[in-house]
Design brief:
Structural class: alpha/beta
Number of strands: 13
Shape: globular
Largest sheet: 6 strands, parallel
Radius of gyration: 24 Å
Strand order of the largest sheet: 1-4-5-6-7-8
């Protein structure tokens, strides 16, 4: 690693470095090739410290640790996290794949002290179905996972990715829906929905006939159907995955999606209904701008049975909020009010040109409508280091 990285002319601007500090995994998940080799080897800590210091000095934007279970050795994980904290220059983000149920109280205490954005965590939950967890040879304390995810989330300093896998044995469509809803309820910064890869040499591959697995014959050997999940159900989950990526994982529609949840008992059903709407309208095969994605969402809400005028108006305001929370939109959305109606307030509070923006609202996020409008000032110079949204300031002022 070291000699290569220090090589002449190395350029790290806008680069992601994939880094390995250990090889192998102590667990035996049946779908993973790491389960085949039972050996677990660690790179010299002297070398690790030297190389991490090099990345920090060169201000590499992101370093992704590819260790299969980074925190399987708590002492070593703590040592690396302390090193990163002590040598942090405020530029580099470090990504770790961890087992949340192995996290200790001492580790949680340390993580809570880290600079917002210094590290991000990827947690492979994969499923919440107890029978599936046992069948794929995973060992997971789901209650502990949920407790850790919630505790880390409270700190607002660490971006969390939670992973689910569709197509695992003994998990049919209703069971996967349950897994999705249960993990979505934790509101991770990203919920990554993947599909089982039937890798040659894995336990899963050896039992593919028993599980009646049908997978693509070419990389990435992705599942198409199983004994418990038919092809049409896989396609439905694909729709959910597509809408999840667009409307949740992008982080660009958060207030709107939170409001949309009020109309559905199941988050899985919500994303599926939205995906089916895209297909029905012929939108699925088209590229769309962010404003257009929001317009489609508002169209979807308007066509839902039981949707009231008040709910549609709340959704419209949420849509305007989401558009401007991310950026000062170059073109005014068609669903937004005329800004001329509050230009005097705008002149008084927008002192940063395009780096700030003011919008008028009547509805509280809770749904209560105010008699007098209030205003939100979006400051694009100051952003949340976790979700990258603009800093907002609420202004209560009557128009003249």
């Amino acid at each position: 690693h070291s000699n290569y990285l220090a090589g002449k002319g190395a350029d790290f601007e806008h680069k992601i470095i994939y880094y390995e500090s250990s090889r192998g995994c102590p667990f035996c998940c049946s779908y993973c090739l790491s389960s085949v080799d039972k050996k677990l080897r660690f790179r010299s800590m002297d070398l690790v410290r030297k190389e991490l210091a090099f990345f920090i000095e060169k201000e590499v934007p992101q370093v992704k640790f590819v260790d299969r279970t980074f925190n399987c050795d708590s002492r070593r994980a703590m040592e690396i996290w302390r090193f990163l904290k002590e040598h942090d220059k405020g530029k580099t983000n470090f990504h770790f794949e961890i087992a949340a149920d192995l996290i200790t109280e001492e580790e949680l205490a340390l993580l809570a002290t880290l600079r917002p954005g210094l590290i991000q965590l990827e947690i492979g939950v994969q499923t919440t179905n107890p029978a599936t967890i046992e069948e794929i040879h995973r060992h997971m304390d789901l209650a502990k996972v949920k407790q850790v995810v919630r505790q880390i989330k409270k700190g607002r300093n660490i971006h969390q990715h939670l992973d689910l896998i569709a197509g695992l044995p003994l998990e049919d469509y209703p069971a996967f829906r349950q897994s999705f809803d249960e993990i979505y309820e934790l509101k991770p910064d990203q919920l990554q929905l993947g599909f089982l890869k039937v890798l040659k040499g894995s336990y899963m591959y050896e039992h593919r006939e028993e599980y009646q697995v049908i997978a693509t014959a070419y990389p990435p050997y992705e599942v198409l159907a199983t004994k418990w999940l038919c092809y049409d159900e896989v396609l439905s989950i694909k729709l959910v995955e597509q809408m999840l990526e667009i409307y949740y994982n992008s982080g660009q529609y958060m207030r709107s999606i939170l409001l949309l949840e009020e109309s559905f008992e199941s988050a899985f059903d919500m994303f599926l209904a939205l995906g089916e709407y895209y297909e029905k309208k012929g939108y699925a095969s088209m590229n769309h701008t962010r404003n257009r994605r929001m317009e489609i969402l508002l169209e979807f809400v308007a066509e839902q049975s039981g949707s009231t005028a008040e709910y549609s108006e709340r959704m419209r305001e949420a849509a305007v909020y989401d558009i401007y929370a991310r950026e000062n939109a170059k073109s005014r959305p068609a669903f937004a009010d005329d800004m001329q109606e509050w230009k005097q307030v705008m002149r008084e509070y927008c002192k940063k040109g395009k780096l700030s923006h003011l919008e008028r609202f009547y509805y509280e996020p809770s749904g209560e409508r105010q008699e007098e409008p209030y205003y939100i000032l979006f400051d694009y110079e100051q952003r949340d280091l976790i979700d990258h949204q603009a800093k907002t300031v609420r202004i209560k002022e009557k128009q003249e």
